[in-house]
Amino acid sequence: MRQTSGIISTYSADVFGVCSALFELGGMVVMHDASGCNSTYTTHDEPRWMDMDAMVYISGISEMEAIMGEDSKLVSDIADAARELHPRFVAVAGTPIPAMTGFDYAACAAMIEGETGIPALGVTTTGMNSYVLGASRAYKMFCEKFVKRDAAKTDAPSVNIVGMTPLDFSIKGEAESVVRFCERAGFAVNANFSMGCTFDELVNAGAAHVNLVVSACGLAAAKWMQAELGIPYVIGTPVAGPYADALADLLCETARTRRDGLCAAHAGTGDIAIIGENVRSIALAEAIALATGRDCRVISSVNEDILRPGDVYAPWEDDVIAALDGAKVVIADPMFAPIAPKGAKFIHNAHEACSGRLWRSEIIDPAAGIDAILSQL
Hints:
The protein contains 15 helices and 14 strands.
């Protein structure tokens, strides 16, 4: 029962991470599930749904199809829809039911591509992991399938923003703030994975001089581009003030020296605990340390690859509660308030991947400033 959350909410699921990463790219994304996941995704995790056309569907697998493994019907239905809709690509991702039956997503994608001639991605997800895993796999598979290996570098310094979805960057202008930060740092944005972008821009990602990984969702793709295209990467999210200056300097240095790095100079210590996605939480911790001299420790339940010494990966509710021991200040999505230590000050830092649209109105754009948080410390 250790993996059960009795108090706090879960984060957005891996299958929703796939949908979010690919939403704007002109592809047809199919969740392989009986019913229900599509409405959960569109009403809680996808703020672009009401204002932007997209092809996100559900397979509607029946009980008999799941038991008997009738995959030919899924392939036929997707092929028929693809012939009518003419998507740039097809992506199939999964939920708990096909996970229990051992569904083969790579084979399904190969069958769809063979029948339609449309490129297809089979992204193995189960609906039981966080959105980071799904978005990471979707971005990496997109790069492997579509990104040009021989793109000529842009004449002026340029950057790819990697790992940007509304699950971490709300539609309240955060994506635009990151773009403006890159431009102030002296870089044109070559491709943005993947808000305010096009399929063709991402295909030409190899033309950039450096990648800025703004969330854990983008790390796998950045590592692939480093290995296959020779593009170095910096990990960090701009937070107004000295941290943004340090991130801009590191971005310029990395483009010049080609040495990858996380923009962080402090350890994960102190009595301030920040719960959230790794990259944004570390950036906030660093910005607080620079502004106040107080170190912060980061607690992440979504990914263990990007952490500083002293930070904690806490995948389950009991782990989070243990990691909060001794914290005098907790900065997190309001969903975590019930498990904060008794007597600790709780500061709201709403996160769409955790609480959906509930507290969207109070989501903070860190690139515009964090005075709302600093004033409460």
